[in-house]
Write a structure and sequence with these properties.
- This protein has about 210 residues and is an alpha/beta fold.
- The chain has one domain: Rossmann fold (3-Layer(aba) Sandwich).
- It has 6 helices and 10 strands.
- The strands form 2 sheets. The chain has an 8-stranded mixed sheet, with helices on both faces. A two-stranded parallel ribbon has the order 7-9.
- The longest helix has 15 residues.
Length: about 210
């Protein structure tokens, strides 16, 4: 496949680029400036302002799937993920590219699949308070994605770790993964690549965990 990765220099995005190239895909990595991505014959690096749809349209044109791994590291109010999703989806529509994979977070979704303590204590009373700004931003990015006519899949992940890949992951459709409290970034990247080629995941919220 021909893939365009946003957030390609982040900890998850960098692993995603590496795995995609190893799997034989052609990758366009969108970066803001200086980067440490190694040269590769199937890698194209595009420097662009991700918040400007006109600036990123060239990076998207002709691709089979776009993977948005952008998130904010700020602890205060932020709209980075939402603004990026709005720009990316607008650019995709302008160049007639339909497939989009968006990374989100499962911490704000307390419901089926969660054990009682996680559903009624951990998520609503602890995580919601600690992560409220980033979770609100992720909610905005999700809504911006759902409001489009694109072939989107929203992937909700729990706590991300830098642990070595386990070589496997669990998913649940439209519900949380039972006892799914964390996943390695490497395994998350594998899941994202798998879903990019899975038409059955279109217009679905896929929760993933180890």
């Amino acid at each position: 496949m021909r893939l365009t990765v946003f957030g390609a220099t982040g900890r998850t995005g960098g692993l995603l680029v590496r795995q995609a190239l190893a799997a034989g895909h052609e990758v366009t990595a969108v970066v803001r400036g200086q980067h440490a991505l190694a040269e590769h014959p199937r890698l194209r690096v595009v420097t662009a302002d991700v918040m400007n749809p006109n600036d990123i349209a060239t990076a998207i044109r002709g691709t089979d799937a776009v993977l948005d791994t952008i998130g904010s590291r700020d602890k205060g109010p932020t709209s980075v993920a939402t603004d990026a999703a709005l720009a990316i989806t607008k650019a995709m529509a302008s160049v007639s590219v339909r497939r989009l994979i968006l990374i989100s977070n499962s911490a704000r979704i307390a419901g089926p699949g969660d054990d009682w303590f996680t559903r009624f204590v951990v998520k609503p009373l602890i995580l919601r308070a600690l992560l409220r700004h980033s979770l609100d931003d992720m909610a905005g990015a999700e809504q911006a994605t759902r409001d489009t006519a694109l072939d989107w899949t929203i992937v909700r992940a729990p706590q991300l770790t830098d642990s070595p890949s386990k070589g496997s992951y669990r998913t649940a459709v439209e519900r949380n993964v039972t006892f799914g409290i964390r996943i390695s970034r490497d395994d998350l990247a594998t899941c994202l690549l798998d879903l990019a080629g899975d038409p059955g995941s279109i217009h679905r919220h896929i929760n993933v965990a180890s």
